[in-house]
Automatic annotation (TrEMBL):
Pfam families: HTH_3
Domain of life: Bacteria
Keyword Transcription regulation: yes
Keywords: DNA-binding, Transcription, Transcription regulation
PANTHER family: HTH-TYPE TRANSCRIPTIONAL REGULATOR, HTH-TYPE TRANSCRIPTIONAL REGULATOR SUTR
InterPro entries for the chain: Cro/C1-type_HTH, Lambda_DNA-bd_dom_sf, TransReg_Diox_bact_type
HTH cro/C1-type domain location: 11-65
Name of this chain's protein: Helix-turn-helix transcriptional regulator
SMART domains reported for this sequence: HTH_XRE
Length: 75
């Protein structure tokens, strides 16, 4: 499992489900838009405190950002 890819896909999935642009989401999370973009493109690793900011902004439990739904769907 590529955890960076799983995390990136989940951030984008939950952001889009909530109807946030990258810019609007970055504002809510207290992060820069280019940082969110880099995360979603798998170009950045991310600190734990920023993971929590993202989960809080998405109003989800943090662990959900690390679940590979492709694997779960195959079970």
């Amino acid at each position: 499992m590529d955890i960076v890819k799983v995390f990136a896909n989940n951030v984008k999935k939950y952001r889009v489900e909530r109807g946030f642009s990258q810019e609007a989401f970055a504002e809510i999370a207290g992060l820069h838009r280019t940082y969110i973009s880099a995360i979603e493109r798998e170009k950045r690793s991310i600190a734990l405190d920023n993971i929590q900011k993202i989960a809080d902004a998405l109003e989800i439990d943090t662990y959900k950002l690390f679940i590979d739904t492709d694997i779960i769907n195959k079970l």
